[in-house]
Write a structure and sequence with these properties.
By secondary structure, this protein is α/β, with parallel strands linked by helices. The chain has three domains: 2-276, Aldolase class I (TIM Barrel), CATH 3.20.20; 296-367, no CATH class; 384-510, Double Stranded RNA Binding Domain (2-Layer Sandwich). The protein is built from 17 helices and 18 strands. It has helices at residues 24-37, 51-63, 77-87, 103-110, 114-131, 147-160, 176-189, 209-219, 240-249, 251-254, 265-276, 297-305, 333-342, 349-365, 371-382, 426-438, 482-513, and strands at 2-3, 5-8, 41-45, 68-74, 93-100, 134-140, 164-169, 197-202, 223-226, 256-257, 293-294, 324-325, 390-397, 405-412, 415-422, 443-451, 460-468, 471-479. It has an eight-stranded parallel barrel with strand order 2-3-4-5-6-7-8-9, surrounded by eight helices. Strands 13-14-15 form a three-stranded antiparallel sheet. The protein is elongated. The structure holds 3-methyl-2-oxobutanoic acid and zinc ion.
Length: 514
């Protein structure tokens, strides 16, 4: 299998996304993650473009060892000087210099002839080469340039010392077959040796950036320029995660590999979202919220039987926890049954049909049916759980200089019982008091709190899951006071535990009697 070099431009082209600017510290943090995930070349910025860009390239050069650190420079001596200055402490440094080559750019933007541009490109590469060994040259807007001229300019910069020839689809104009032909043409007509690597850099204006990149790799390019989450100018760049996972998932077709540790993709994507403030669309391949979520009944049934029925890679292979079965109006019985089992309900077929009917009624009204809705359906439909303990009263004393102390009074069969406890915080204190009164000791596995209405007097809902005797139970409580919601959630879970024990005892006794 042949190696594909991953050149990440999240910090340069990615940062050119409108509104994506990151601080120097954030860029350094991302550069460290890029190094850890196994990126070969990190394009750290465009040093001449601003003092902050310069500083980011400088810091990354000093602090990130392992990958090649690249800086961007127009084909101008002052850009190359700034680039070199910023990169000079890098362990491995690359100057990436570029100039436009399409007729449209020459005529309207550069106002230069083809000969002038070729000469400027050669001078820039020679100058960069006098400073560093590793020089990359990009013919901006290559895909709208004359192929013969492209061949001439690339041939001239190889002579001048460039070792990476980047072929950018600057405006996302090409299509996979045409781009592959361009790569084949250049491979055929240039005097490439094993030191020269062909690279591609695709923009996503027609949604083809990943497809064009892959097509070019198949045709012989060996460096892919990509950005995390596909961020970049306008519609963005070829997405890091898509290109890497396509090569890995379809190695049978590409016969190539990258050195990327794909299990780190999702955390990296999340960090880029946090730092840039640019969210990922839910249906985005690999890293979108729904990339491993199944709603249709047929799909859920398939995934439960074997995940590969509807998943071509595992969520774990890209650093995500697990596939999600989203319960909604398209879900089938199998998905609902599995989710109810995961929630700790063991329901007979007869009761299940009643629950499924109710579930469909709710699913028709709501886009998504959440776990708490399911709990309410089960308990409402089956009247499974008479309340054993109810809350009469609670009070908590807390603050930053007192030990949180709670007093709780509960009612059971018309009798009240009260106890008090201290804890690490107010919730811990009330939970300990409740455990003392009920005699039910639990292990809190998860606790989450949400505002379910708006404003300062919003209702808070608390969802918990607890473990008792190796079984998982859930509890749910709603109140305007978050401690009260927490108390109600624990009572809900404890009542469920007691109810379950009662049912089990009854079943055991029946077994003995028969
Ligand atoms: O899109 C482009 O052409 C670029 C070059 C500077 C490589 O970003
Ligand atoms: Zn670009």
């Amino acid at each position: 299998m042949e190696r594909v070099y991953i050149f990440d431009t999240t910090l340069r082209d990615g940062e050119q996304s409108p509104g994506a600017s990151m601080s120097v510290e954030q860029k350094l943090e991302i550069a460290k993650l890029l190094k850890n995930i196994g990126v070969d070349i990190i394009e750290a910025g465009f040093p001449i473009s601003s003092p902050k860009q310069f500083e980011a390239v400088q810091q990354i050069s000093e602090k990130v060892r392992g990958p090649v650190i690249a800086g961007l420079a127009r084909a101008l001596q002052k850009d190359i000087d700034a680039c070199y200055e910023a990169l000079k402490n890098a362990e491995k440094k690359r100057i990436h210099t570029f100039i436009a080559t399409s007729d449209i750019h020459l005529k309207y933007k550069l106002k230069k002839s083809k000969e002038e541009v070729l000469k400027q490109a050669v001078e820039a590469v020679k100058y960069a080469k006098s400073l560093v060994d590793d020089v990359e040259f990009s013919a901006e807007d290559a895909t709208r340039s004359d192929w013969g001229y492209l061949k001439d300019i690339y041939e001239a910069v190889i002579e001048a010392g460039a070792t990476t020839l980047n072929i950018p689809d600057t405006v996302g104009y090409t299509v996979p077959e045409e781009f592959a032909k361009l790569i084949e043409y250049l491979k055929q007509h240039l005097s490439l040796n094993d030191k020269v690597v062909l690279s591609v850099h695709c923009h996503n204006d027609l949604g083809l950036a990943t497809a064009n990149t892959l097509s070019a790799l198949k045709a012989g390019a060996r460096q892919a320029e990509v950005s995390v989450n596909g961020i970049g100018e306008r519609a963005g760049n070829a997405s890091f995660e898509e290109v890497v996972m396509a090569i890995k998932t379809r190695k049978d077709y590409f016969d190539m590999y990258t050195n990327i540790k794909t299990e780190e993709i999702y955390p990296l994507s999340k960090t880029v979202v946090t730092f840039t403030g640019i969210p990922v669309q839910p249906n985005k391949a690999i890293v979108g919220e729904n990339a491993f979520a199944h709603e249709a009944g047929i799909h859920q049934d398939g995934v439960i039987k074997h995940n590969m029925t509807y998943e071509i890679m595992t969520p774990q292979s890209v650093g995500r926890q697990k596939s999600m079965l989203v319960l909604g109006r398209h879900s089938g019985k199998h998905g609902l049954k599995v989710r109810l089992q995961e929630l700790g309900y063991d329901i007979s077929d007869k009761d299940f049909n009643k629950i499924y009917k109710k579930f469909l009624e709710i699913a028709d009204k709501k886009k998504q049916v959440f776990d708490d809705d399911l709990i309410a359906i089960v308990e409402g439909e089956m009247n499974v759980m008479p309340e054993v303990y109810t809350l009469e009263y609670f009070s908590v004393v807390t603050g930053n200089s007192v030990i949180p102390t709670a007093t709780v009074k509960l009612k059971k069969n018309n009798k009240t019982c009260q106890d008090a406890s201290t804890g690490d915080g107010p919730v811990d204190a009330v939970y300990k008091a409740i455990e003392k009164i009920t005699g039910v000791e639990i292990r809190l596995i998860s606790y989450s709190i949400n505002a379910i209405t708006q404003g300062k007097d919003a209702l808070g809902s608390v969802s918990i899951s607890v473990e008792k005797d190796n079984r998982l139970y859930r509890g749910y409580g709603v109140a305007t006071d978050v401690i009260e919601a927490s108390v109600l959630a624990l009572l809900n879970a404890i009542n469920r535990i007691l109810h379950n024990n009662k049912v089990e005892n009854l079943n055991n006794n029946k077994g003995v009697a028969s």
